[in-house]
């Protein structure tokens, strides 16, 4: 049985003095003109399910202009439980609460994970590898605490190692200890990524073909140390071989670091490791950044999001809350219909739109339509 988000209440949050949203167990459509606050509500739902927002706001930005504090709360109901997730901002500080008890942002994760699509996600195909790495890690962190710990630890090691590299030759005696930490955390993080990407990849291929009338898309992982361009996903991602995969990545990474040492000291940055690995998308065998149309790029990102939904269900045995902000523009009618059909039954979904005309009668019949107007803001 799923746990569902039932109602969101916000006070003095962004452009809302006070607002309550009752969320349908299947499909809720937030309809309204530009700038009425639809994305703000989606952001609130992400904050209260994932402990983070795609906009990365400072606490003060969440508070309505002219107010001194704000509060957001979301009821999650199911499996015989009611759980209240809340976030408050006062005096410039953000606090999360679970059933009234203070917790860290990570305390918002794990009950109902969320998968969000927003127009900025198109950066996943348009921009550099860091956006794709962040998408993969952001998803992994929600699903698995050890992924979250590893990602945080690795990031700190890279920062500290880079600081030492910038100190120059004097630091050469000290770098060894940081090499060890980088290689150990880096190898484990790489294998976590490979295992997750292998799961996502299978669904991306399936969903993209369904959205794009059979056209083929793919996603691959290219580590900085993989100089031969081998298909490491297939080789290293089988869960049963996790320990030996980590050992093998460990060796590759150690060798790569040794090769780059002089250049690293010259440039003051760490040149090998998961923080520089590439996640590459292709359509019909060609790199999407230079080749794909807007509609193809959007379809590929949507296929990735549907893949996140399916993988969440596979791993946690329950579906996530699916948040779709302005998802339909730039898709033709066929792709729009295929996308809506691709949302599995039982996946609680919130969609924002300026135009209900994007949705067919069947989708409208099974959804709760909530009009957001300036009166509420
Ligand atoms: N802290 C704040 N105080 C007051 N208003 C804010 C605050 N933060 C954001 N806003 C306002 O909220 C408004 C609505 O933003 P939002 O992005 O949710 O609109 P939207 O309905 O999704 O619009 P669109 O259809 O154009 O994407 C913006 O005009 C913005 O200026």
TrEMBL record:
Q: Which GO terms describe its cellular component?
A: cytoplasm
Q: Where in the cell is it found?
A: Cytoplasm
- The residues the record assigns to binding ATP are 32-39
Which GO BP annotation is one of this protein's?
SOS response
Annotated transmembrane regions: none
Q: Which UniProt keywords apply?
A: ATP-binding, Cytoplasm, DNA damage, DNA repair, DNA replication, DNA-binding, Nucleotide-binding, SOS response
User: What range(s) does the RecF/RecN/SMC N-terminal domain occupy?
Assistant: 7-357
A single GO molecular-function term is: single-stranded DNA binding
For this protein, the record's SUPFAM superfamilies field holds: P-loop containing nucleoside triphosphate hydrolases
**Principal cellular location given in the protein's record:** cytoplasm
Pfam families of this UniProt entry?
SMC_N
| Protein family | Belongs to the RecF family.
What function does the entry list? The RecF protein is involved in DNA metabolism; it is required for DNA replication and normal SOS inducibility. RecF binds preferentially to single-stranded, linear DNA. It also seems to bind ATP.
This chain belongs to the protein called DNA replication and repair protein RecF
Q: Which organism is it from?
A: [Collinsella] massiliensis
The record lists the lineage as: Bacteria, Bacillati, Actinomycetota, Coriobacteriia, Coriobacteriales
């Amino acid at each position: 049985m799923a746990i569902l988000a039932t109602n969101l209440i916000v006070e003095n949050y962004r452009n809302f003095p006070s607002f309550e949203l009752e969320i349908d167990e299947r499909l809720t459509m937030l309809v309204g003109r530009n700038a009425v606050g639809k994305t703000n509500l989606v952001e609130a739902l992400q904050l209260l399910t994932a402990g983070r927002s795609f906009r990365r706001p400072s606490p003060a930005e969440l508070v309505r202009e002219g107010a001194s504090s704000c509060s957001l709360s979301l009821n999650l109901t199911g499996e015989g439980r009611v759980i209240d997730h809340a976030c408050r901002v006062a005096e410039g500080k953000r606090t999360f609460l679970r059933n009234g008890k203070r917790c860290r942002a990570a305390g918002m994760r794990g009950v109902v994970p969320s998968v969000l699509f927003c127009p900025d996600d198109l950066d996943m195909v348009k921009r550099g590898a860091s956006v794709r790495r962040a998408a993969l890690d952001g998803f992994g962190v929600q699903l698995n605490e050890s992924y979250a710990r590893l990602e945080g630890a690795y990031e700190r090691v890279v920062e500290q190692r880079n600081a030492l590299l910038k100190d120059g030759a004097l630091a050469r005696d000290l770098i060894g200890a940081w090499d060890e930490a980088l290689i150990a955390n880096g190898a484990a993080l790489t294998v976590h990524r490979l295992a997750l990407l292998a799961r996502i990849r299978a669904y991306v291929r399936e969903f993209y073909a369904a959205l794009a009338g059979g056209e083929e898309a793919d996603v691959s992982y290219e580590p900085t140390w993989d100089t031969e361009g081998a298909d490491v996903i297939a080789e290293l991602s089988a869960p049963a071989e996790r320990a030996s995969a980590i050992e093998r990545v460990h060796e590759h990474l150690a060798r790569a670091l040794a090769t780059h040492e002089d250049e690293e000291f010259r440039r003051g940055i760490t040149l090998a490791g998961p923080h520089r690995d590439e996640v590459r998308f292709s359509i019909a065998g060609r790199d999407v950044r230079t080749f794909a149309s807007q509609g193809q790029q959007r379809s590929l990102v949507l296929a990735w999001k549907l893949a996140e939904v399916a993988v969440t269900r596979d791993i946690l045995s329950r579906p996530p809350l699916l948040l779709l902000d302005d998802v339909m523009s730039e898709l033709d009618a066929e792709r729009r219909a295929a996308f809506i059909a691709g949302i599995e039954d039982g996946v609680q979904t919130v969609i924002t739109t300026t135009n209900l005309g994007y949705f067919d009668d069947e989708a409208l019949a099974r959804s709760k339509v909530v009009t957001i107007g300036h009166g509420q803001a």
